[in-house]
Amino acid sequence: MSKIQLVQFDLDGTLIDSLPQLWQAVNLMLVELGFAQAPKQAVQHWVGNGADKLVERALTDALGHTPSEHEQQTARASFDAAYDSVAKHKVVLYPGVFETLNQLKAAGKTLALVTNKPYRFVPDILASAGLDEYFSHVLGGDSLAQKKPDPAPLLHVCQALNIAPEHSIMVGDSENDVLAAKAAGMRVVGVTYGYNYGRNIADSNPDWVLDNIEGLLDLLK
Ligand SMILES: O=C(O)COP(=O)(O)O
Ligand SMILES: [Mg+2]
């Protein structure tokens, strides 16, 4: 695996445990709209396809039906304001993240971040986590017309850096990461400690499954 030049990372559920802040923001939104709060596990299962889907899933659960365009827009504005106020609070990195990123950098790998989270939230979260100096490229879920599981963001990063997909690897916690990487012609590592709608990442058949991100260092030797 020494041929790998570029490592593309997912953010939520892979590098940081953002569920506490996402849960809090969803509940601030639900309360503002007059609904009951949602349990943490429900929110965990709604994360993965960006903020619009998170809001739509929470609203569908609260309303008992699919929200109208107007309901969705009102809720999304409420969620954005709430998440703006809490997203960068006490950002918790998973064990081994700094060590792994530092060693990959020291080994000369290029690192990129491809998240489905709307871009506007990402720089502050990275700065708060101490991760703002690591990535040559950072894409949010709304940076391009397509988001994961579409391969477009991963291929965009490869093209921008002039690195072939077979010389890149994706690391993520969700089937969206696995599907995007496979469609991009890239190998993929699934981490077991993230969200993935409460499902086992091994079921999505990533090329490797890791319980701790530090396992990457052995893989990429
Ligand atoms: O915002 C989401 O739904 C998931 O974000 P991620 O792609 O960083 O896991
Ligand atoms: Mg994720």
From TrEMBL:
Residue numbers annotated as active site: 10
The UniProt entry's GO biological process terms, in alphabetical order, are: carbohydrate metabolic process; DNA repair; glycolate biosynthetic process
Q: Which reaction does it catalyse?
A: 2-phosphoglycolate + H2O = glycolate + phosphate
Sample GO molecular function, one term:
phosphoglycolate phosphatase activity
Q: Please name one Pfam family that this protein belongs to.
A: HAD_2
Q: Where does Mg(2+) bind?
A: 10, 12, 173
User: Out of the domains of life, which is the source?
Assistant: Bacteria
Q: What does this protein do?
A: Specifically catalyzes the dephosphorylation of 2-phosphoglycolate. Is involved in the dissimilation of the intracellular 2-phosphoglycolate formed during the DNA repair of 3'-phosphoglycolate ends, a major class of DNA lesions induced by oxidative stress.
NCBIfam families recorded: HAD-SF-IA-v1 (TIGR01549), HAD-SF-IA-v3 (TIGR01509), HAD-SF-IIIA (TIGR01662), PGP_bact (TIGR01449), PRK13222.1-2 (NF009695)
Question: What family does this chain come from, according to its entry?
Answer: Belongs to the HAD-like hydrolase superfamily. CbbY/CbbZ/Gph/YieH family.
What's the protein here called? Phosphoglycolate phosphatase
